[in-house]
Write a structure and sequence with these properties.
33% helix, binds NADPH dihydro-nicotinamide-adenine-dinucleotide phosphate, 26% strand, 14 strands, 327 residues, alpha/beta, 7-stranded parallel β-sheet
C-alpha cells in the first residue's frame, strides 16, 4: 500500500532526528523539509530530500499527509502550531507545561475549522511520562506520583549558565538523587523537597580573566535555577567541553507508589535512559505522526494530546497483528 507522506517544519535537532526516525519506518516517507532559513544553507542527512522555504508550504497541501513540527516551544510553536494546523495534520513536542491549555485551544480552533488532526505536546515529557503518570493515578487512586529526571543535559539550565558574565561556555546535568529514589521505591511515600530529589552538576569554560570563585558563586545562588539544589561547578577547558559534553543524554523515572485493599503496597515504575534526547523525542513524534494520519482518516479532527490517542494507532501493524503478537 501507499506510504504515509511526511513533511518536516524546522530543521534543528528534532528536525534531523525526525528525518532519521522516518528512515527506520516501513510505512512512511519523507517528502520535504521546510525552513525559515535559506534552504541552500540547510543540509540534510539524505541529500535527495528537497528543502523549501517555510513560506511556500501552502503549495504542498495535497503532497503531504502529516507535518512534523520541529520548532522550539518558546517562540516557534506558539506561532507555527496554530498556523500550520490550518493547513496540515500535525504533530509537535510543545513542552511548556504551564502553557499547554492555551496552546491546545489555539491549535484546536484552527485544526477543527480545517478538518485536520493535530497531536500536541508529544515526546517523552510531556508525552510518554504523562501517560505513565495517568496510568499510575487511574490504577492506584490512593498513592503518590514521583517524576525524577536525568541523568540529563538540561537546555534551559545550560543556557542560564552561558548567559552569566565570566562564562565562555558550559553545560548542566540534572541528576536524580539515588537515596530519594530508593525511598520512593520502598513504598514509604516520602515527602521530598526539591533539594532531596535532584542535584545539578555544571561544567563551565571560564572567559579570559574571569574569577572561578565569582562564577561559581553566581551559579549556585541563582534563584529558580540553582539556589534550591545542591549544585557542583567544575571548570574545564574548551577542548574537554567539546570532547566530553557534546552529546545530549536524558531520561528519567515516573514512579507511582500506592495502596490497594487494606494497605497492600504496589509500586509502578517507568524509566527511560536516552543517549540522545532529540533522536528519541523525534522517534516518538514519528510514531504519533502515523497516529495523527490514521485518526484523521477516521474523521477524528481537532487538537489532541497523548491521552487521546489509542496506542494501537502508533504501530504500523494492523490491530489483528498486534492482538496476535503483543497482547
Ligand atoms: P533547535 O533549537 O535545534 O531547533 C529549533 C528551530 O530552530 C528549528 O526548527 C530551526 O527552524 C531553527 N534552527 C535550528 N538550527 C538552527 C541554526 N543553526 N540557525 C538558525 N536556526 C536554527 O531545537 P530542538 O530541535 O533541540 O528542540 C525543539 C523543541 O523540542 C524544544 O524547544 C523543546 O521544547 C522540545 N522538546 C520536547 C521534548 C518532549 O519530551 N516533549 C523533548 C525534547 C525537546 P528553521 O529550520 O525554520 O530555521
Amino acid at each position: 500500500s501507499e506510504k504515509i507522506r511526511v513533511g518536516i517544519a524546522g530543521y534543528g535537532n528534532l528536525g534531523r532526528g525526525t528525518e532519521l526516525a522516518i528512515a527506520k519506518t516501513p510505512d512512511m516517507e519523507l517528502v520535504a523539509v521546510f525552513t525559515r532559513r535559506d534552504p541552500e544553507s540547510v543540509s540534510l542527512v539524505n541529500q535527495n530530500v528537497p528543502v523549501y522555504k517555510l513560506d511556500d508550504i501552502g503549495q504542498f497541501q495535497d503532497k503531504i499527509d502529516v507535518l512534523v513540527l520541529c520548532g522550539g516551544s518558546k517562540s516557534d510553536l506558539p506561532e507555527q502550531g496554530p498556523a500550520l494546523s490550518a493547513l496540515f495534520n500535525t504533530v509537535d513536542s510543545f513542552d511548556t507545561h504551564a502553557k499547554i491549555p492555551e496552546y491546545f485551544e489555539a491549535v484546536n480552533n484552527s485544526a477543527e475549522l480545517a478538518g485536520n488532526t493535530s497531536l500536541i505536546a508529544i515526546g517523552w515529557d510531556p508525552g510518554l511520562f504523562s501517560i505513565n503518570r495517568l496510568f499510575g493515578e487511574a490504577i492506584l487512586p490512593e498513592g503518590a506520583t514521583y517524576t525524577f529526571w536525568g541523568k540529563g543535559l538540561s537546555q534551559g539550565h545550560s543556557d542560564a549558565i552561558r548567559r552569566l558574565p565570566g562564562v565562555k561556555a558550559g553545560v548542566q546535568y540534572t541528576i536524580p538523587v539515588t537515596e530519594a529514589m530508593d525511598k520512593v521505591r520502598s513504598g514509604s511515600m516520602p515527602v521530598l523537597s526539591t533539594r532531596e530529589k535532584h542535584k545539578r552538576d555544571c561544567y563551565v569554560v571560564l572567559a579570559e580573566g574571569a574569577s572561578a570563585s565569582e562564577v561559581e558563586q553566581s551559579i549556585v545562588t541563582m534563584p529558580d535555577y540553582f539556589a534550591d539544589y545542591d549544585t557542583t561547578v567544575s571548570f574545564i577547558t574548551e577542548e574537554e567541553l567539546k570532547r566530553d559534553h557534546a552529546a545530549m543524554p536524558h531520561g528519567g523515572f515516573v514512579i507511582r507508589s500506592g495502596k490497594t485493599g487494606a494497605g497492600t503496597n504496589q509500586v509502578m515504575e517507568y524509566s527511560l535512559a536516552l543517549d540522545s534526547n532529540p533522536e528519541f523525542t523525534s522517534s516518538v513524534l514519528v510514531a504519533y505522526a502515523r497516529a495523527a494520519y490514521k485518526l484523521n482518516q477516521m474523521g477524528q479532527t481537532g487538537a489532541k494530546t497523548a491521552f487521546d490517542v489509542p496506542p494501537g494507532l502508533l504501530s504500523p501493524k494492523s490491530a489483528a497483528q498486534l492482538r496476535k503478537e503483543l497482547l
